[in-house]
Design a protein that fits this description.
By secondary structure, the protein is mainly α. The protein has helices spanning 2-11, 14-45, 48-76, 82-93, 103-113, 119-148, 150-155, 157-160, 162-169, 172-185, 197-226, 230-249, 259-268, 274-308.
Protein backbone atom coordinates (compact mmCIF):
# COMPACT_ATOMS: atom_id res chain seq x y z
CA UNK A 1 0.00 0.00 0.00
CA UNK A 2 2.85 2.38 0.81
CA UNK A 3 4.47 1.65 -2.54
CA UNK A 4 1.16 2.28 -4.35
CA UNK A 5 0.66 5.55 -2.48
CA UNK A 6 4.18 6.67 -3.32
CA UNK A 7 3.73 5.80 -7.00
CA UNK A 8 0.42 7.69 -7.05
CA UNK A 9 2.11 10.78 -5.63
CA UNK A 10 4.93 10.52 -8.14
CA UNK A 11 2.51 10.12 -11.04
CA UNK A 12 0.51 13.10 -9.79
CA UNK A 13 3.53 15.41 -9.69
CA UNK A 14 3.15 18.26 -12.20
CA UNK A 15 6.92 18.19 -12.75
CA UNK A 16 6.86 14.53 -13.74
CA UNK A 17 3.79 15.03 -15.92
CA UNK A 18 5.44 17.99 -17.62
CA UNK A 19 8.68 16.05 -18.10
CA UNK A 20 6.89 13.10 -19.69
CA UNK A 21 4.91 15.38 -21.97
CA UNK A 22 8.09 17.21 -23.00
CA UNK A 23 9.85 13.90 -23.72
CA UNK A 24 6.97 12.60 -25.85
CA UNK A 25 6.74 15.86 -27.80
CA UNK A 26 10.51 15.87 -28.33
CA UNK A 27 10.48 12.36 -29.79
CA UNK A 28 7.47 13.17 -31.94
CA UNK A 29 9.07 16.40 -33.09
CA UNK A 30 12.26 14.60 -34.07
CA UNK A 31 10.32 11.99 -36.03
CA UNK A 32 8.26 14.70 -37.72
CA UNK A 33 11.43 16.56 -38.67
CA UNK A 34 12.93 13.45 -40.24
CA UNK A 35 9.78 12.72 -42.26
CA UNK A 36 8.82 16.32 -43.01
CA UNK A 37 9.32 16.25 -46.82
CA UNK A 38 7.10 13.15 -47.11
CA UNK A 39 4.62 14.60 -44.60
CA UNK A 40 4.21 17.82 -46.58
CA UNK A 41 3.76 15.81 -49.76
CA UNK A 42 1.04 13.76 -48.10
CA UNK A 43 -0.70 16.84 -46.72
CA UNK A 44 -0.68 18.43 -50.19
CA UNK A 45 -2.47 15.38 -51.63
CA UNK A 46 -5.33 15.43 -49.11
CA UNK A 47 -8.59 16.69 -50.58
CA UNK A 48 -10.86 19.10 -48.73
CA UNK A 49 -13.83 16.74 -48.94
CA UNK A 50 -11.83 13.97 -47.23
CA UNK A 51 -10.98 16.34 -44.38
CA UNK A 52 -14.61 17.49 -44.16
CA UNK A 53 -15.82 13.87 -44.07
CA UNK A 54 -13.26 13.09 -41.37
CA UNK A 55 -14.47 16.02 -39.27
CA UNK A 56 -18.11 14.96 -39.69
CA UNK A 57 -17.23 11.40 -38.70
CA UNK A 58 -15.32 12.66 -35.64
CA UNK A 59 -18.33 14.70 -34.51
CA UNK A 60 -20.70 11.78 -35.06
CA UNK A 61 -18.35 9.46 -33.18
CA UNK A 62 -18.09 11.86 -30.25
CA UNK A 63 -21.89 12.10 -30.16
CA UNK A 64 -22.13 8.30 -29.94
CA UNK A 65 -19.66 8.34 -27.02
CA UNK A 66 -21.82 10.96 -25.31
CA UNK A 67 -24.92 8.79 -25.77
CA UNK A 68 -23.04 5.84 -24.27
CA UNK A 69 -22.35 7.87 -21.11
CA UNK A 70 -25.98 9.02 -21.07
CA UNK A 71 -27.14 5.39 -21.21
CA UNK A 72 -24.96 4.51 -18.21
CA UNK A 73 -26.17 7.53 -16.24
CA UNK A 74 -29.80 6.60 -16.95
CA UNK A 75 -29.07 3.02 -15.88
CA UNK A 76 -27.80 4.37 -12.56
CA UNK A 77 -31.01 6.34 -12.03
CA UNK A 78 -30.49 9.80 -13.57
CA UNK A 79 -31.95 9.94 -17.08
CA UNK A 80 -31.08 13.21 -18.79
CA UNK A 81 -32.57 14.69 -21.97
CA UNK A 82 -30.22 14.49 -24.92
CA UNK A 83 -29.69 18.26 -24.94
CA UNK A 84 -28.73 18.32 -21.26
CA UNK A 85 -26.44 15.31 -21.64
CA UNK A 86 -24.80 16.93 -24.67
CA UNK A 87 -24.16 20.16 -22.77
CA UNK A 88 -22.59 18.34 -19.81
CA UNK A 89 -20.45 15.98 -21.85
CA UNK A 90 -19.29 18.27 -24.63
CA UNK A 91 -18.32 21.11 -22.30
CA UNK A 92 -16.48 18.72 -19.98
CA UNK A 93 -14.50 17.24 -22.87
CA UNK A 94 -12.76 20.56 -23.40
CA UNK A 95 -11.05 20.12 -20.03
CA UNK A 96 -9.20 16.99 -21.15
CA UNK A 97 -6.67 19.20 -22.93
CA UNK A 98 -5.51 20.56 -19.58
CA UNK A 99 -2.52 18.57 -18.23
CA UNK A 100 -3.72 16.21 -15.53
CA UNK A 101 -6.20 13.39 -15.35
CA UNK A 102 -8.93 14.94 -13.21
CA UNK A 103 -10.09 18.11 -14.93
CA UNK A 104 -12.50 16.61 -17.46
CA UNK A 105 -13.69 14.15 -14.82
CA UNK A 106 -14.39 16.91 -12.31
CA UNK A 107 -15.99 19.17 -14.91
CA UNK A 108 -18.46 16.48 -15.96
CA UNK A 109 -19.40 15.79 -12.33
CA UNK A 110 -20.00 19.45 -11.54
CA UNK A 111 -21.91 20.16 -14.74
CA UNK A 112 -24.07 17.11 -14.07
CA UNK A 113 -24.80 18.42 -10.58
CA UNK A 114 -26.44 21.46 -12.18
CA UNK A 115 -29.07 19.02 -13.48
CA UNK A 116 -29.64 17.54 -10.01
CA UNK A 117 -27.48 14.49 -10.69
CA UNK A 118 -25.85 13.43 -7.39
CA UNK A 119 -22.10 13.76 -7.56
CA UNK A 120 -21.49 10.15 -6.55
CA UNK A 121 -23.73 9.02 -9.42
CA UNK A 122 -21.91 11.27 -11.88
CA UNK A 123 -18.59 9.92 -10.62
CA UNK A 124 -19.75 6.34 -11.13
CA UNK A 125 -21.17 7.08 -14.58
CA UNK A 126 -18.03 8.78 -15.85
CA UNK A 127 -15.73 6.08 -14.45
CA UNK A 128 -17.90 3.36 -15.97
CA UNK A 129 -18.20 5.08 -19.34
CA UNK A 130 -14.42 5.47 -19.57
CA UNK A 131 -13.94 1.79 -18.77
CA UNK A 132 -16.57 0.77 -21.35
CA UNK A 133 -15.02 3.06 -23.95
CA UNK A 134 -11.50 1.72 -23.47
CA UNK A 135 -12.70 -1.88 -23.18
CA UNK A 136 -14.69 -1.79 -26.41
CA UNK A 137 -11.89 0.04 -28.21
CA UNK A 138 -9.32 -2.57 -27.23
CA UNK A 139 -11.68 -5.41 -28.12
CA UNK A 140 -12.29 -3.88 -31.54
CA UNK A 141 -8.54 -3.65 -32.06
CA UNK A 142 -8.19 -7.30 -31.04
CA UNK A 143 -10.76 -8.29 -33.67
CA UNK A 144 -9.49 -6.20 -36.58
CA UNK A 145 -5.72 -5.83 -36.28
CA UNK A 146 -4.66 -9.51 -36.15
CA UNK A 147 -6.26 -9.89 -39.58
CA UNK A 148 -5.22 -6.60 -41.15
CA UNK A 149 -1.97 -5.66 -39.36
CA UNK A 150 -0.54 -8.47 -37.18
CA UNK A 151 2.77 -6.61 -36.80
CA UNK A 152 0.99 -3.89 -34.81
CA UNK A 153 -0.32 -6.49 -32.36
CA UNK A 154 3.20 -7.81 -31.86
CA UNK A 155 4.47 -4.36 -30.90
CA UNK A 156 1.53 -3.22 -28.76
CA UNK A 157 0.36 -6.46 -27.16
CA UNK A 158 1.01 -4.94 -23.74
CA UNK A 159 -1.76 -2.38 -24.30
CA UNK A 160 -4.21 -5.07 -25.39
CA UNK A 161 -3.53 -7.03 -22.20
CA UNK A 162 -5.74 -4.50 -20.43
CA UNK A 163 -8.79 -5.59 -22.47
CA UNK A 164 -9.69 -8.83 -20.59
CA UNK A 165 -9.07 -7.15 -17.25
CA UNK A 166 -11.36 -4.24 -18.11
CA UNK A 167 -14.09 -6.46 -19.54
CA UNK A 168 -14.02 -8.72 -16.47
CA UNK A 169 -14.33 -5.64 -14.25
CA UNK A 170 -17.38 -4.54 -16.27
CA UNK A 171 -19.46 -7.54 -15.18
CA UNK A 172 -22.23 -5.89 -13.11
CA UNK A 173 -21.57 -7.82 -9.85
CA UNK A 174 -17.87 -6.95 -10.01
CA UNK A 175 -18.43 -3.42 -11.27
CA UNK A 176 -20.90 -2.65 -8.47
CA UNK A 177 -18.35 -3.65 -5.82
CA UNK A 178 -15.59 -1.68 -7.52
CA UNK A 179 -17.71 1.47 -7.76
CA UNK A 180 -18.84 1.26 -4.14
CA UNK A 181 -15.23 0.79 -3.08
CA UNK A 182 -14.12 3.83 -5.08
CA UNK A 183 -16.93 5.89 -3.62
CA UNK A 184 -15.89 4.83 -0.13
CA UNK A 185 -12.33 5.94 -0.84
CA UNK A 186 -13.52 9.43 -1.81
CA UNK A 187 -15.90 9.50 1.16
CA UNK A 188 -19.14 9.24 -0.75
CA UNK A 189 -22.12 7.04 -0.01
CA UNK A 190 -22.71 3.88 -2.07
CA UNK A 191 -24.94 3.95 -5.13
CA UNK A 192 -28.68 3.41 -4.74
CA UNK A 193 -28.77 1.55 -8.05
CA UNK A 194 -25.98 -0.54 -9.52
CA UNK A 195 -25.19 -0.95 -13.24
CA UNK A 196 -27.14 -3.61 -15.10
CA UNK A 197 -26.38 -5.77 -18.11
CA UNK A 198 -28.97 -3.84 -20.13
CA UNK A 199 -27.42 -0.45 -19.45
CA UNK A 200 -23.88 -1.66 -20.09
CA UNK A 201 -24.95 -3.38 -23.32
CA UNK A 202 -26.55 -0.17 -24.61
CA UNK A 203 -23.41 1.77 -23.72
CA UNK A 204 -21.18 -0.78 -25.46
CA UNK A 205 -23.34 -0.58 -28.59
CA UNK A 206 -23.05 3.22 -28.68
CA UNK A 207 -19.31 3.01 -28.07
CA UNK A 208 -18.89 0.46 -30.85
CA UNK A 209 -20.73 2.78 -33.24
CA UNK A 210 -18.51 5.63 -32.08
CA UNK A 211 -15.29 3.71 -32.71
CA UNK A 212 -16.47 2.67 -36.17
CA UNK A 213 -17.27 6.28 -37.07
CA UNK A 214 -13.95 7.58 -35.76
CA UNK A 215 -12.09 4.87 -37.66
CA UNK A 216 -14.10 5.69 -40.77
CA UNK A 217 -12.91 9.30 -40.50
CA UNK A 218 -9.28 8.13 -40.47
CA UNK A 219 -10.01 5.84 -43.43
CA UNK A 220 -11.39 8.76 -45.43
CA UNK A 221 -8.07 10.54 -44.97
CA UNK A 222 -6.02 7.44 -45.76
CA UNK A 223 -7.92 6.58 -48.94
CA UNK A 224 -6.85 9.85 -50.52
CA UNK A 225 -3.22 8.73 -50.16
CA UNK A 226 -3.41 4.97 -50.56
CA UNK A 227 -6.62 4.08 -52.41
CA UNK A 228 -9.83 2.34 -51.34
CA UNK A 229 -9.07 -1.02 -49.74
CA UNK A 230 -11.02 -3.09 -47.22
CA UNK A 231 -7.82 -3.84 -45.33
CA UNK A 232 -7.16 -0.12 -44.98
CA UNK A 233 -10.58 0.31 -43.38
CA UNK A 234 -9.85 -2.46 -40.86
CA UNK A 235 -6.48 -0.91 -40.03
CA UNK A 236 -8.01 2.56 -39.69
CA UNK A 237 -10.73 1.31 -37.32
CA UNK A 238 -8.53 -1.03 -35.31
CA UNK A 239 -5.50 1.25 -35.29
CA UNK A 240 -7.43 4.31 -34.20
CA UNK A 241 -9.36 2.48 -31.48
CA UNK A 242 -6.08 1.03 -30.17
CA UNK A 243 -4.29 4.38 -30.36
CA UNK A 244 -7.11 6.35 -28.71
CA UNK A 245 -7.59 3.76 -25.96
CA UNK A 246 -3.87 3.69 -25.21
CA UNK A 247 -3.86 7.47 -25.08
CA UNK A 248 -6.68 7.39 -22.53
CA UNK A 249 -4.79 4.89 -20.38
CA UNK A 250 -1.77 7.22 -20.37
CA UNK A 251 -3.53 9.81 -18.23
CA UNK A 252 -0.37 11.85 -17.67
CA UNK A 253 -0.56 13.14 -21.26
CA UNK A 254 -3.32 15.68 -22.04
CA UNK A 255 -5.62 14.21 -24.67
CA UNK A 256 -3.20 11.30 -25.17
CA UNK A 257 -1.05 13.61 -27.27
CA UNK A 258 1.94 11.91 -28.82
CA UNK A 259 1.10 8.36 -27.76
CA UNK A 260 -2.03 8.28 -29.90
CA UNK A 261 -0.17 9.50 -32.96
CA UNK A 262 2.73 7.07 -32.53
CA UNK A 263 0.45 4.04 -32.43
CA UNK A 264 -1.76 5.27 -35.26
CA UNK A 265 1.28 5.93 -37.47
CA UNK A 266 2.60 2.45 -36.72
CA UNK A 267 -0.71 0.93 -37.84
CA UNK A 268 -1.11 3.07 -40.96
CA UNK A 269 2.51 2.51 -41.98
CA UNK A 270 1.60 -1.08 -42.86
CA UNK A 271 -0.41 0.24 -45.86
CA UNK A 272 0.95 3.76 -46.39
CA UNK A 273 4.42 5.31 -46.72
CA UNK A 274 5.60 6.55 -43.34
CA UNK A 275 5.34 10.21 -44.34
CA UNK A 276 1.77 9.76 -45.54
CA UNK A 277 0.88 7.90 -42.33
CA UNK A 278 2.21 10.80 -40.27
CA UNK A 279 0.20 13.24 -42.37
CA UNK A 280 -3.00 11.25 -41.78
CA UNK A 281 -2.31 11.05 -38.02
CA UNK A 282 -1.72 14.81 -37.81
CA UNK A 283 -4.90 15.66 -39.70
CA UNK A 284 -6.86 13.10 -37.66
CA UNK A 285 -5.67 14.84 -34.48
CA UNK A 286 -6.68 18.21 -35.95
CA UNK A 287 -10.16 17.01 -36.92
CA UNK A 288 -10.85 15.45 -33.50
CA UNK A 289 -9.67 18.62 -31.79
CA UNK A 290 -11.86 20.71 -34.09
CA UNK A 291 -14.74 18.35 -33.32
CA UNK A 292 -14.25 18.87 -29.57
CA UNK A 293 -14.21 22.65 -30.04
CA UNK A 294 -17.31 22.70 -32.24
CA UNK A 295 -19.27 20.39 -29.95
CA UNK A 296 -18.06 22.32 -26.90
CA UNK A 297 -19.33 25.53 -28.48
CA UNK A 298 -22.64 23.79 -29.14
CA UNK A 299 -22.81 22.76 -25.48
CA UNK A 300 -22.14 26.35 -24.41
CA UNK A 301 -24.85 27.57 -26.77
CA UNK A 302 -27.33 25.17 -25.17
CA UNK A 303 -26.50 26.69 -21.79
CA UNK A 304 -26.88 30.26 -23.03
CA UNK A 305 -30.21 29.44 -24.67
CA UNK A 306 -31.51 28.02 -21.38
CA UNK A 307 -30.34 31.12 -19.50
CA UNK A 308 -31.91 33.50 -22.02
CA UNK A 309 -35.25 31.80 -21.45
CA UNK A 310 -34.93 32.34 -17.72
CA UNK A 311 -34.85 28.62 -16.94
CA UNK A 312 -32.53 26.79 -14.62
CA UNK A 313 -30.58 23.74 -15.75
CA UNK A 314 -32.03 21.61 -12.97
CA UNK A 315 -33.89 18.57 -14.28
CA UNK A 316 -36.66 16.91 -12.33
CA UNK A 317 -36.39 13.60 -14.14
CA UNK A 318 -33.75 12.12 -11.86
CA UNK A 319 -34.63 9.31 -9.54
CA UNK A 320 -35.34 9.99 -5.87
CA UNK A 321 -32.32 10.60 -3.62
CA UNK A 322 -31.03 7.91 -1.31
CA UNK A 323 -32.69 7.27 2.01
CA UNK A 324 -29.96 8.97 4.01
CA UNK A 325 -30.45 12.75 4.42
CA UNK A 326 -26.71 13.28 4.02
CA UNK A 327 -26.80 11.84 0.54
CA UNK A 328 -28.64 14.83 -0.86
CA UNK A 329 -25.42 16.82 -0.85
CA UNK A 330 -23.27 14.09 -2.35
Amino acid sequence: MRVLTRLTRIAGSPWIRGGLLAAVLAFCGYGLHEEWPQVTAGLARLQWYAIAASLAAAMAGATCMMLAWRAILADLGSPLPVRAAARVNFLAQLAKYIPGAVWAFAAQIELGHEYQVPRRRSFASVATSLAVMVGTGLLLALVTLPVAAPAVIQHYWWVLCAAPVIMAALCPPVLGRVLDRLLTLIRRQPLERLPTWGGLTRAMAWNLAGWLLLGFGVWMLATGLGGLHASTLLIAVGGYSLAFSAGMLLVVLPGGIGARELILVAALSTVLPSGAAVAVALVARATTTASDLILGAAGAAIGRRSSSRGTQPGYAGTSPPSKSPASSSS
